[in-house]
Design brief:
With about 400 residues, this protein is α/β, with parallel strands linked by helices. It is built from 12 helices and 15 strands. The strands form 4 sheets. The protein has a 5-stranded mixed sheet with strand order 6-5-4-7-10. Strands 13-12-11-14-15 form a 5-stranded mixed sheet, with helices on both faces. Helix 2 packs across helix 3. The longest helix has 19 residues. It is globular and about 75 Å long. The relative contact order is 0.14.
């Protein structure tokens, strides 16, 4: 995954030189330290590297413009320690979310913070050539306004797809995309590296890397109105208001209910894509054998049942159906947290958190789980969470994250 050999023209960063494991460790610690920075001694202690190795790595990072001094810190003995921080503007990546009816494009700095954004309508069924041209045009317009070059473009869209080759399969409702090499088509059109993944995987990656919402693991009854309220109070970014960086989430399911339904699974801190990168096709598990037909060709899929209930205004029923699927995931994977996202959830946050949480609570009671149900929360990131996660497809590997 050595994607590209430069970031912006001013910094002259050679990203191929950053692909070492040790450099990634140091960069990740600089990223998580935030503006307050971290000393070379702390870097050595936390990475297990020798002070000499850390000095060489940080010297190169400073020369490349990726790290800078953030002041000095009092020492217990000897002269004060120089503190280093990451330079966020030293590199950028584009996150592109192709939904069935709109495209969202964000430009993110090295910390994942959004510095520019565009959102316009899109018809995913308009044909590959038209969609590629429209998406490329939006990326070019964003970059022209921002005036920076980028590491590349991360693309997130409904699956199933082959993440490794960037080739789409039979996207539900859009069979004409089957076999289309989206990664190569966009890379050829834009002239920059492109990575493609499912929307749910991208969103889950963004949450896992940035660690937003990690505080949700710490208590509070799932499914309560208070839980929903605390998520809403966190704001569109999902920040809890704490001043320091959050810890990464290690084990959770991100359930995305928008124009379709899918899941992103994070296990052991990394996105679980499966042997054929097909994990997370959550919406097409059948839970009602004689249920309504689904666009995938089956009947009684969770996606079909959820969306049908929403269409007739039965949001509580849709939440309970989603809860059944979430409970199945919890039982299979023993995860720590369920996060809900997507525009349909966003329109009814409290109802979905409460409904899904109630099913998980009932399942935990029946199973006699001593420590209660798994928490249910609204995912951070809001409407652009998938696009932000798509940018992390390029950014995360620089910090040793996000690679299979």
């Amino acid at each position: 995954m050595a994607y590209v050999n430069r970031t912006n023209a001013e910094s002259g960063v050679n990203l191929l030189a950053l692909r070492s494991h040790n450099a990634a460790l140091v960069l990740d610690l600089l990223r998580t330290a935030g503006e307050g920075g971290i000393s070379r001694l702390e870097l050595a202690e936390r990475t297990g590297l020798t002070p000499q190795a850390v000095s060489k790595i940080t010297a190169r990072l400073r020369a490349d413009g990726l790290a800078a001094e953030a002041g000095r810190r009092a020492s217990t003995g000897g002269k004060p320690r120089t503190v280093l921080r990451l330079v966020p503007e030293a590199g950028h990546a584009v996150g592109l979310h192709l939904d069935r009816d709109e495209v969202t494009v964000v430009l993110c700095d090295l910390t994942g913070a959004v510095v520019a954004e565009r959102r316009v309508p899109l018809d995913l069924g308009a044909g590959a050539e038209a969609v590629v041209e429209s998406a490329a045009g939006e990326v070019e317009a964003l970059l022209a306004r921002a005036g920076v070059s980028v590491l590349g473009v991360g693309v997130a869209l409904p699956g199933p797809l082959d993440h490794a080759r960037g080739v789409l399969h039979r996207v539900t409702g859009f069979p004409e995309w089957d076999g289309f090499p989206l990664r190569d088509a966009l890379a050829g059109r834009l002239g920059v590296p492109v990575v493609v993944d499912k929307d749910t995987n991208a969103a889950a990656l963004g949450i896992a890397v940035v660690g937003s919402g990690a505080g949700a693991l710490g208590g509070g009854a799932s499914g309560s109105a208070g839980a929903a309220g605390s998520s809403a109070a966190a704001g569109p970014s999902g920040s809890s208001g704490s001043s320091g960086p959050s810890s990464p989430l290690e084990s959770f399911a991100y359930l995305h209910l928008g124009t379709g339904l899918g899941a992103g699974l994070v296990i052991g801190g990394g996105v679980h894509r499966g042997a054929r990168t097909g994990a997370g096709e959550f919406g097409h598990q059948v839970i009602q054998l004689d249920g309504p037909p689904c666009g995938c060709g089956n009947r009684g899929c969770i996606e079909a049942l959820c969306l049908a209930a929403v269409d007739r205004g039965a949001v509580g029923e849709a939440a309970r159906v989603l809860g059944v699927g979430a409970a199945n995931l919890v039982g299979l994977l023993d995860i720590d947290l369920v996060l809900l996202g997507g525009r349909t959830v966003a329109a009814h946050e409290e109802a979905f958190v409460r409904g899904v949480g109630a099913v998980l609570e009932e399942r935990a009671r029946l199973e006699g789980v001593d420590d209660g149900a798994i928490p249910v929360r609204v995912a951070p990131g809001g409407a652009r969470g998938v696009a932000e996660g798509a940018a992390q497809l390029l950014l995360a590997p620089l910090f040793g994250r996000g690679e299979d």
